[in-house]
Specification:
Layout lengths: L8 H7 L11 E5 L5 H14 L2 E5 L4 H8 L8 E4 L3 H10 L3 E5 L6 E2 L10 E5 L8 H4 L4 E4 L11 H12 L4
Parallel strand pairs: 1-2, 1-6, 2-3, 4-6, 4-7, 5-7
């Protein structure tokens, strides 16, 4: 058995996708009811990794929150939502987007069973304590459950969103 060889940064860059993602064309992470600021920047970093954009409500503290966990040198793909987020979600749905929530519901699909997105998809994340509110749950095409065996009942927004984004992007 041979030892694993660590690839260099130039080798990794050459193996990555050859083109930049098309903003708004495929996958959008939407933490619409954010609670903890540090998680938004971390999730934004994952969006870049999978070729997704992020849509966030325009709140005074959100720009600083996005900058906290994002260490990228390039300008990230962020779109601002003005007004009510449930109305924004309704517009996305009317425009043909699939609306996928990360939430525990009676009909939630286990993360392992989620197929990669085959059309424009908005992945919705709720408030870390209260989840997605009822008016948001009503707009979901389906919800994703992340199984857990530990004593906690949920993951933070950055971790949960990252897991589901990788699955929807077809990268795992």
């Amino acid at each position: 058995m041979t030892a694993a060889r660590v690839r260099t940064r130039p080798e990794l860059r050459r193996q990555r996708r050859r083109r930049a993602h098309g903003c708004w064309n495929h996958l959008i992470a939407a933490p619409l009811w954010p609670k903890h600021s540090v998680n938004l920047g971390t999730l934004l970093r994952t969006c870049d990794a999978v070729g997704a954009c992020m849509a966030v409500p325009r709140r005074p503290w959100v720009p600083d929150a996005l900058a906290q966990g994002n260490t990228l040198r390039t300008r990230p793909c962020v779109h601002w939502i003005d007004g009510r987020v449930d109305r924004w979600l309704e517009r996305q749905r009317r425009g043909g987007s699939a609306i996928v929530g990360v939430e525990l519901t009676d009909e939630s699909i286990r993360l392992a069973d989620v197929e990669p997105a085959n059309r424009r998809t908005v992945m919705v994340l709720g408030h870390e304590s209260d989840g997605i509110p009822p008016e948001g749950v009503e707009l979901l095409d389906f919800a994703v459950e992340i199984p857990m065996v530990g004593s906690g009942h949920s993951l933070n927004v950055a971790v949960a969103g990252s897991l589901v984004l990788y699955k929807l992007a077809g990268l795992c």
